[in-house]
Every structure is written in structure tokens, then in C-alpha cells.
Amino acid sequence: xxxxxxxxxxxxxxxxxxxxxxxxxxxxxxxxxNADLYPSYSTKLVDQYPDLxxxxxxxxxxxxxxxxxxxxxxxLKIDGVIKVNAKLEKVDGTQFETELHRSSRLSLQQAxxxxxxxxxxxxxxxxxxxxxxxxxxxxxxxxxxxxxxxNGSGSSSSSSVVSDDGKSIHYEYTVIFEDTxxxxxxxxxxxEELGFWDTEEQALDLELYSIVHHNEMGQxxxxxxxxxxxxxxxxxxxxxxxxxxxxxxxxxxxxxxxENNDGDMVLSIIYTEAETxxxxxxxxxxxxxxxxxxxxxxxxxxxxxxxxxxxxxDDISNAKLVVSTSDFIPYNIDGLELNxxxxxxxxxxxxxxxxIATANKDGSSVEIRNIKINPLRVMLEGxxxxxxxxxxxxxxxxxxYNDGTTLELQQCNSTGSYNEDYTVxxxxxxxxxxxxxxxxxxxxxxxxxxxxxxx
Length: 455
What we know:
By secondary structure, this protein is mainly beta. It has seven helices and 29 strands.
């Protein structure tokens, strides 16, 4: 075991709407309803991670746009992991529409004046016009340019919760930058598409059991027919379409009820749209209880988008189709933007280069060659053999403390590369606790599929 200390960015400052020339970052989309909210929450990172209080920057700066006020409360950066806690309020102090489906898009970008670095690279290229570009630009240059201009240079996750009084929405946004060497200390947080979806629901006045189009058509129109013979599929749709207008450019075309090859009775709903705007959905209910679809497909033929929804249901005599339409109501049009810096501080890490071999339940074998731990995540480096189509590299990763307590970790980010015949994947994957931070002083071991790597 070796204990390493890393120096990470210093003293926090924040500038509102500071123009920057170059930026590279990570986007995240938050879409959440009140049904998904946590029963309790803390408004600040310092309350969620008390052990990390020395590394958390209290920012508490705001910007107001179009009647809304967005505040970054505090932020944290440890070894490429950045957490930002923020809140949104209405300037007039009124409540948000807490019963409606909210939406927002957050992105975190590196924000610093890089003109000189870019200028030096350009001048080297100009002075070496006869050389191959790969001879002029070094691997470090490519890494630098990728971090600045790259799209998706890491992974992100977001969550939001409405306060008890309904007057503020709190956001926790986490970004993991894979390239920590070229990551600076100045960042820009952008919040776009901030608003809510106003949804209306209406049952269609249709007796489904009396509409069975494939009897008239002489064959079933499904995704297989569309895939094999688009021309015939479109001729059938156009000839037998109900042309039942659903609004917003959507048209209900066909309703089919038939037995599939597995012996199940399938209710198939086909509807089309002139363009995909994503603000309408069709659902099936029996006695006001939703029936969940077994599959949904969307295909474009010429200028028409065909949507097929299938349900496994025997008796459709009491079934009703319910159409839901949604309009996006923005809190502001222009979006919000804040620039800030994060602190330089020493954060302990644990690292071991032990090698172990283990196996997953599906038979794939794994070799772990290096483990690194910081207070926010455990990083594993290794290889997986015969991965197939499995999700994730390791079945189970846990942290074990000196008192015998064992806590399961969840995967939070990963990178991987195949060998030439696609049988081996070399990976680096991160794991985190569901809540709180890892107490490095009390770590006894990391368990990978039950096998222990002691610290």
C-alpha cells in the first residue's frame, strides 16, 4: 500500500457572464418529476459530505435572468470528479409548479483564456507547412486540444429536488473528467432548457375491439414488414389508415389485434407524424389502470415518421387509448451561465498495484491490476475476457472498513478499449457510494466479486 497526496486546484472565485474564447466540457440532462424525489435532502455539499468540508468551496453567487435566480451554493473537485450544488428560485418568491414534470440541461465546461497556448501550436504548424501534422503536433498537444475542443470529455449525472415550500429547486450536478492532467481550475456552468412540461391527458372515443385492420388488409403490418418491404407497408398504411387526428401533426393510422409467433395476443397501435417533436404519447389503459407496452419502434420513411407500440393483452373490450400531449414552458428563454474556480488543496489517495483474477456470474473472467481510492470513488484498472454483451466489467465491488462494515459501490464512469479480435477489453472503471464519502483512514480492503485486496 502507498499513500499519495495530490495537489488539486486553490482559492475559489466566481465571475458572472465572463466571456471565454475556448471551452471543452460535459453535458447532462435532468428530467425528473416529484415522484422521483428523495424524501429528504441537504441544500449544500458540505452537509452531504461533512468529512470533505475542508475541500468544499463555498461559492454562494447568483445570476438573475427573466424572473429566475440561479445560485451556485458550493462545489467540490477531487481527482477529476467535480460536484456542483445549486438552486433555482423565482425572483418574486412564488412557488414552482411542483406537480409538473421539470426539465433542464446542464453543462460544465473548462473556461479559461487559452489564446497563448493555441497561438503557439498554430505558429508551429505555420512554420512547418511541409511536415506531416502528426510530426509537428505532439501527443501532449493533441491531449490539450482534445480537452479544449473535445465534446463529451467525461461523464455526468444530475439530480434535482423541490424544497418543502415549493419555492426553490435544488440541483446536484456531478461531472467526471477522464483527462485530469489537462484539466484547469476555471469552469463555466451553463443551464439551458430550464422549465417544465405542461401535460394534458385525454381518452380517445374509440371502441378498440371493433377496429381490427389486418382482417381487411389480409396481412399484418408490423416492424418486420416495414423493414423488409417499405413500399408495400406504406401502401397498406395509406389505404387503410383511420386518419384519426391526434393533434400536433400526429395521426392514428392502424389498430391491430393478432396472435404472434409465440402464441401471445398482441395489440398493435400505429401512428405517424410529419416531424418528430416528441410532445405526444399514446398509452393503453384498462379500467383506468395503465398497461405497459412490450415494445416500441420508430422508423422514418421519406418524410413520415411511423411509430409502432405493441401490448400483450388478450381482452381489449374494456381497453382505452389515452393520448397525452405536452407543451414545454420555459422558466427563461436565454438560459443561465456562471463562471467559477475551484480550490487547490491536498487530498489523500490510496493505491495498490496488486493483481488478482476473478470471474463474473456469466463466466467472463476479470484481471484487476491496479486500484486507486479517493474520498469520492474507487478506480479499478484491468482487463475483462469474453465480455460479450454484458453491461459493466465487474459484478460486485465493495469497500470494507476496519470494523468489518462492508458497503456496496455502484459504477459511476468507465473507459475501455478492445484488442484486435475483440475478445479482451482493457478498462478503467470508477465506483462510488450511493451516498456520502469513503473514509480512507478506515479502509481495510476493496472486495471485487468477494475477493479481497487489502490496504
